[in-house]
Amino acid sequence: MAKYGIIMRMKKLRIILAIFACNLVKKLIRLLGRGGTDFPGRVALKICPDLLGHMAKGVTTIFVTGTNGKTTTSRMIEQVLADSEISYFANKSGANLLSGVTAEFAAHCTLSGKCRYQYALIETDEAAFKHISKFVHAKAVVVTNVFRDQLDRYGEVSHTLENIRLGIEGCPDAVVCLNADDSLCTSLADVLPNEIVYYGVNVPIYVSRVFELSDAKYCIRCKHAYEYRYVTYGHLGGYYCPNCGFERPKPLVAVTEVTKSDAEGSDVTITVGDTPYSARINLPAGYNIYNGCAAMAISHVMGFDLKVASLALGHFTCGFGRMEKFHIGSADLRMILIKNPAGCNQVLNFLSSISEPYVFTACLNDRAQDGKDISWIWDVDFERLAEMGDKLSAIYVSGVRAEELAMRFYYAGVPREKLHVEKNYDLLTDALTAQPLPVYIMPTYTAMMDLRGVISKKYGFKAFWE
Q1: CA–CA separation, 203 vs 261, rounded Å?
Q2: Under CATH, which number does the domain 322-459 receive?
Q3: From its phi and psi, is residue 329 left (phi > 0), alpha (psi between -120 and 50) or beta?
Q4: CA 99, CA 91: separation in Å to the nearest integer?
Q5: Are residues 350 and 285 in contact, defined by beta-carbon separation less than 8 angstroms?
Q6: Number of Cβ within a 10 Å radius of residue 260
Q7: What is the CATH number assigned to the segment(s) 58-94+117-312?
Q8: Three-state secondary structure along the chain?
Q9: pTM of full prediction above 0.85
């Protein structure tokens, strides 16, 4: 008994030391003007490898995972929590690996490891999900979609799907919200014992679509080619297999009408069961309609007031770089993060719907967080840019791989005189803020962080972690 008591005291001491060290390192990094979202957690895990499990005890946790839309869906759910006056914290800085989530919990716990909040809303990287769910057992999980993404890190979509499955296995009691329109997502229901709630979009969301390569062309059960009653984007929509009968399940939570879409957002009807809710989604582009539907599905599962949830979609704050707007003098800049062909094509769909002239900027990096393989740019329908004619006033290209991206645009048919390569972010920012037309910036992750950092420093916008 005495030995056991010593072990327990040592364990408590490690927890206290790990949380103290984590928060101290984070403060020191912030004093240096850095984000400090990952390294403090690594320090804490060196001291106490199972620290996250201790801090997450008794906390009602919601996980958001999937290839695209995690951050925006999380911000929508966060607004629902705030409007519902629920005590919560969220990893809004984007720290979605094991170390980052550990640091986020540590920032919201006492030194003894007791969380100060009732709820935790955690966006988790698909590959890291299986490691995080070993320590955090969620009450609900939402899977946004599964697309081909960063082949050098995630591999093919089947590998991403397997990572998500393993992550959910760590949450055996969670209700899982799956995107009914994604055949890869719905296949998870075949191998999981969890209660499943489907959400989806029952109607097309674009008048016309860019050309896209499907990431799930063949039936996951029998390998026969899918047929579609309608397509929303990518491989999402009303799919069915004429060979084995595998098809899109009927969603409990569904977008049943899109009454208006413009450059600022969409007006939709989201039906939960038999009850319709009118909602204004205050970000543009069709994929944000899916994010709003996912947020409503989680709200239903968690028992939140759905009227409150539907209203929250109209005034949530977008995540940094996710359709984020910067008003600088008379200039209007909107930053739209991209990381794979599916997301990039959806940005082009959105740009195609804009009727007024604008300036387009694309920034391509090939660092670890972006994916080293940039061959995916040849799978994007950039030919759509050439079709925009005079509506597209100019294109600025930047980033580590700016020249390769400029070449892709040139081969897509964009006139050479419209292309401007500027790799210096200070000079690029000066050029963009001098534009009389709206500017749409499409960067990969590290390019977004670098360019956003320059804009924030120059013009006094909040840092990404604030």
Answers
A1: 13
A2: 3.90.190.20
A3: left
A4: 12
A5: yes
A6: 9
A7: 3.40.1190.10
A8: CHHHHHHHHHHHHHHHHHHHHHHHHHHHHHHCCCCCCCHHHHHHHHHCCCHHHHHCCCCEEEEEECCCCHHHHHHHHHHHHHHCCCCEEECCCCCCCHHHHHHHHHHCECCCCCECCCEEEEECCCCCHHHHCCCCCCCEEEECCCCCCCHHHHCCHHHHHHHHHHHHHCCCCCEEEEECCCHHHHHHHHCCCCCEEEEEECCCCCCCCCCCCCCCCECCCCCCECEEEEEEECCEEEEECCCCCCECCCCCEEEEEEEEECCCCEEEEEEECCEEEEEEECCCCHHHHHHHHHHHHHHHHHCCCHHHHHHHCCCCCCCCCEEEEEEECCEEEEEECCCCHHHHHHHHHHHHCCCCCEEEEEECCCCCCCCCCCHHHHHCCCHHHHHCHHHEEEEEEECCCHHHHHHHHHHCCCCHHHEEECCCHHHHHHHHHCCCCCEEEEECHHHHHHHHHHHHHHHCCCCCCC
A9: yes
The residue ranges of every structural domain in the chain are 58-94+117-312, 322-459
Phi, psi of 112 (to 5 degrees): -80, -10
Q: How far apart are CA 228 and CA 242, in angstroms?
A: 10
Q: Which residues pair with 281 in a beta bridge?
A: 266
Residue 66 one-letter amino acid: G
Nearest Cα neighbor of 161 from 131, 134, 129 is 129
Q: Which of 6, 4, 26 is nearest to 109 (CA)?
A: 26
Per DSSP bridges, beta strands 196-201 and 227-233 are unpaired
> Letter for the amino acid at 459?
Y
* Type of residue found at 442: M
- Each of the 466 residues of the chain gets a pLDDT tens digit; together they read 566 666 667 789 999 999 999 999 999 998 887 766 789 999 999 999 999 999 999 999 999 999 999 999 999 999 999 999 999 999 988 789 999 999 999 999 999 999 999 999 999 999 999 999 999 999 999 999 999 865 444 457 889 999 999 999 999 999 999 999 999 999 999 999 999 999 999 998 887 776 777 888 999 999 999 999 999 988 999 999 999 999 999 999 999 999 998 888 999 999 999 999 999 999 988 899 999 999 999 999 999 999 999 999 999 988 878 889 999 988 999 999 998 898 899 899 889 888 899 999 999 999 988 888 899 999 999 998 888 888 999 999 999 999 999 999 999 999 999 999 999 999 999 999 999 999 999 999 999 999 999 999 888 887 665 5
All residues at 6 or more sequence positions from 289 whose CB lies less than 8 Å from its CB, including other chains: 201, 205, 255, 258, 266, 268, 281
